[in-house]
Amino acid sequence: MAESNAEDYGAFIQRFNLFPSPHSPTLPPLPLEGLTFAVKDIFDIDGYVTGFGNPDWARTHLPATSTAPTVLALLEAGATCVGKTVMDEMAYSINGENKHYGTPINPVAPDRVPGGSSSGSAVAVAAGLVDFSLGTDTAGSVRVPAAYCGIFGFRPSHDVVSTSHVIPMAQSFDTVGWFARDPATISKVGHTLLQLPGEINVEPTRFIIANDCFKYLGSLGEQISHILVQSVEDTFGSHVISHENLGNYTLSKVPISKNFISTAPESRVSTIPALGALSYALRLLQRFEFKSNHEEWLNNVKPSLGPGISERIMEALTSTDDNLDSCRKFKVDFKAALTDLLGDYGVLAIPTIPGPPPKLNLDVTALKDFRAQAFCLIAVASMSGFCQISVPLGLQNGLPVSVSLLARHGADYFLLNLVQSFYPTLKERAAATWESGL
């Protein structure tokens, strides 16, 4: 059972301390020295059961006999781990509600969900309980809770941060991501974990605003676009700014997308049919891989699962391998098209989510359209494998506002450095906009 209470916002499932190795005071300080962090209960830590968000999973698995390399790297860099955090069951939700362990309290919007599946990790950072935290992001599980809780959330390029000793959800999309309250910390963690050559600190050659994606947000989308344009002009100059209809671009550059539109339920909900098709292909692949990973355990144990989770897992278990080759081609072709669009040092701006965080305890059916629209945005980085950072823009009418920036696969340092360089301007512009009521 979770060892949580109101003081920790229900973020932790287990508290403990893992200290870094002793460091000589005569040596330069370690990069993460003095910082604390928490880890999602999907990472192995030697001597502790990895619970995967479900008590039946915890009951039927032995304690881990080694620690995930990502956790070890953070300890070696001088940080102290203070515990494991609550997550959505089997990482199969972006909501953040857990019927077994309770729903972590969103510190900036207590009547709203915190977002999942890395719910506790996001809440621990947003509440100031730790300096940063680890989560995983397969289909939005770092980006969404970061946006809901008003903090930074980074999904790295696929396969550049080790997922060893992390329970798989769907390996073609699984990434280890992290949360922080400021761009300096999110960058420091990145420099510890990213397995990439060199540090790229160059200005963007293109800054592309996806106009059709911002239309999900109505007038708020127009405000965010304006804030972005002003901030980029102030920092890098107006010559780098361009606008794109991402749905039309996908239709023209990825012909296979047309094959999915008629069959994708998301295309009927989305105002951007091509991104609905992209989302549909993502979910088909995700279901198949999840089934391959966990079907045997699910059928043998028949675990108790919460609402929404049980339906999605049943969909996965009854899924077939029809259309998988087409989905994989869609994924490859979309990555190539997006690479052409951005080039080496282009940036794509989209909303992280299609609106404010939903209220707590909403019926599953009430969330259906919102979830479908969210997946249209989430699918862009998941299907391309690109890196993405959700950037907080403060509160408007008491609710968190965010924007997401994406860069090509492998441009993670570039994206982290870019956010550090222009976030002060972005934050100031956003604050002035919300205060003016424009």
From TrEMBL:
Region forming the signal peptide: none
Location of the Amidase domain: 29-186, 298-416
Example of a GO MF term: hydrolase activity, acting on carbon-nitrogen (but not peptide) bonds, in linear amides
InterPro entries assigned to the protein according to its UniProt record, in alphabetical order: Amidase_CS (IPR020556), Amidase_dom (IPR023631), AS_sf (IPR036928)
NCBIfam families reported in the protein's UniProt record: PRK08310.1 (NF006169)
Family assignment from sequence similarity: Belongs to the amidase family.
Protein name: Amidase domain-containing protein
